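EI: anyone free to look at a 294-residue chain?
SC: sure, send it
EI:
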Amino acid sequence: MPENEDRYPAESGRRRFVKGVVGASALGATGITTAVGADLTTTSSGAGGGTIQYYGIENTDGPAPRAMPQIPVEITDGGELKGVWPEVETRTVDNEEIKVAEMQLGGTTYSSEWYQYCGVQTYPGIRPDADQGNFFRSAPQPSYEWQSDLSPGDKLTVDMFDDWETWGNDVGTAGIGKPASATWRSQDLSPQETVPVQVLRSTRIEDLAQNADDPAVREWLQASTSQGFIAWLNKCTHFCCVPGFKATASFGAANSVYCPCHQSVYSPFSIVRRQFTSLPRPEDTGGESGEGGE
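SC: here you go
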């Protein structure tokens, strides 16, 4: 299957769907939002969008057509975890001024368009100039018991992962990394507008950043990970469900990221460069907001 196509495998016999077309009522339990239920067809009305290359965690099994995109990580002096948001500028495209969030990072062009699929392109936090903080915050309904000591919205910090080299949850192999369910750029927004993220700290990520076979991947990981922390937008590229790392011992996914809806599997320890067609954001109808730098 071509890497730049979002579609069911040919053998499934199902017709092609455009990400974001399916109504929320059909997939409400999987985290699809009312925004996704909008009539987002193949017409490219809106801002941004188009063919784009990105880095993500590789899809290794199941119908998912491509990797889930990474979110570069940075750590504050106080040990708080943040996602890097690209620099915002105004450009003129087809005689119209649009806001663009884009920067050079780790030898590649990192853009907010990496996240414009599965209806996420409609979320307020994905607007280039959205007044949203970049801290990773504990999710309202986390997948991991260790997060029960946190309140929804608490900032994730390095010290929360002190047992990252030994942590386990009775699924797969203990000691390969400690995950967290998180949100990003979603403060004070409704659950339907929350950007779901997974954060993982692993010695394997540290090793990849230094020893990956592909020098381009090494350069990227050295710029996009820190102290073994990696993060990705947690929206399955198959049908927009919300997967989980070490979520099941079945389907060969015990040490991987597994999507329970259609058995897609991703490896956070295999970082690949892929291409897809980023969906345009809806046209902005409100006033300008400030740039979120926190």
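EI: DSSP finds two helices and 14 strands in the chain.
SC: 👍
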